[in-house]
Design brief:
This protein is α/β, with parallel strands linked by helices. 32% of the residues lie in helices and 24% in strands. The longest helix has 19 residues, at 47-65.
Length: 201
């Protein structure tokens, strides 16, 4: 991965280690510069619009500071019965979320935005993946909560971690559930950027 500079070519505007890992695995050369926008300032709207709006706000925030760079912003939520599940703030909240997801199909929505202010290029989209959970016993829920993995995760689970045992099947992009639809992001970048700029040392 290239080091930070005064003008990074590609910037990931997220502190998420999962998004960083996904882009690194895809061989992308990039610099991490998280956006510090106040997410509470973004009005709640339809989930697919809400995550896309958050992603756009993060990308634009960093793009103002680095107008020559290509900036990637993203935001992910879990949706069940039209209710958005964010990150649990306590064991009680994590327990309630996991019980709600148990044996049910839910949707994972990731909005992503890619922009370059200097080139007046701006793109954003929401990708949706359906996830089916196994029927969870109370013991399984308590064990998983005690691993502390559910915290700082939308919907109180990490499909790429220990939480993989919760998932019976998915319909759609796996990386979208992790936090970034890599296929769609790379497809866009390949169309817009020279190949030599996409891969790092």
């Amino acid at each position: 991965m290239q080091n930070s500079s005064d003008n990074p070519f590609i910037i990931l505007a997220s502190k998420s280690p999962r998004r960083k890992y996904l882009l690194k695995q895809a061989g992308l050369s990039f610099t991490v510069i998280p956006s510090n926008i106040d997410e509470n300032s973004i009005p709640i709207s339809r989930p697919e619009i809400y995550v896309r709006t958050l992603a756009e706000a993060k990308a634009k925030d960093i793009s103002k500071k680095y107008p020559e760079s290509w900036v990637i912003g993203a935001d992910t939520v879990v949706l069940i019965d039209e209710i958005i599940l964010g990150k649990p703030s306590s064991k009680t909240e994590a327990r309630a979320m996991l019980k709600q997801l148990s044996g049910q199909i839910h949707k994972v929505l990731t909005g992503y935005s890619i922009c370059c202010k200097a080139r007046n290029r701006f793109f954003s989209e929401t990708i949706i993946t359906e996830v089916l959970f196994k029927n969870l016993t109370n013991d399984e829920i308590e064990w998983y909560i005690n691993t502390e993995e559910p915290f700082d995760k939308a919907g109180a689970y990490a499909i790429q971690g220990l939480g993989t045992f919760l998932v019976k099947s998915i319909n759609g992009s796996y990386t979208n559930v992790v936090g970034l639809p890599v296929c769609e992001v790379i497809e866009f970048l390949i169309k817009e950027l020279p190949r030599s700029k996409l891969r790092g040392i």
